[in-house]
Request: fold
Amino acid sequence: MEKAVFVALDLPSKQAVTDLLAKLGSPKQTYLKIGMELFYHVGANLVTELSQQGYQIFLDLKLHDIPNTVYHAAKQLAQLGIYCTTVHALGGSEMIAAARSGLAAGSPAGKPLPKLLAVTELTSISPAILKNEQNCVLPMQEQVISLAKMAKKAGADGVICSPLETAAIRQQLGSEFLCVTPGIRLKSNPQDDQKRVTTPQKACKLGASAIVVGRPITQAANPQDVYQTIKQEFN
Ligand code: C5P
Reply:
């Protein structure tokens, strides 16, 4: 994976996306993250359109269902020409392997296979929820590493993780396994609702393969300037 800065398009409409992209510059080498909100609102057409314009699309839909359903869903998503997508590791190894096969089956000929990233435990899951609601006997970090190992064995290319988990994951899973991390802020940015934030430079030092940045870019007076600064700091 390129050392990408994915711009999280957490925006309410296609018009808002068009306005932002006009400010970001050339689609070449521009990485965008589309999540559930925008996808459920504007549908798959926007993904195809942006991909055809040359943007690299991280379609973050966090699939989690029985393997057969995930296989067919992943096959459909691959046909949109995406760069990478996500599944919940908690769906199990069979489901992750099915997603991998679905992506391979749906990927347009001559295009690189979309990368498959697994979400281990959501960062909104506290140790108390892990213990009392998921009835997990492992401490959080061990659970995250255990899920990451299982996901890798099942065919995932990497995980979405907090920058603070990157070092441990890299150490246990090797430098080829991707760690994509949100929660990134420049020193001058507000933290918003993120609990633990890291600068692009620190994320790079900790070993992040790619970072996801939303509001610091989408809400900036000059998104292009902030995007360039973040890219320079991360690289
Ligand atoms: O605006 P901000 O930079 O906080 O956006 C971060 C993006 O990364 C959002 O799209 C958010 O949903 C996503 N994300 C996150 N934390 C996670 C997983 C995904 O912030 N643990």
In short: The chain has eleven helices and eight strands.
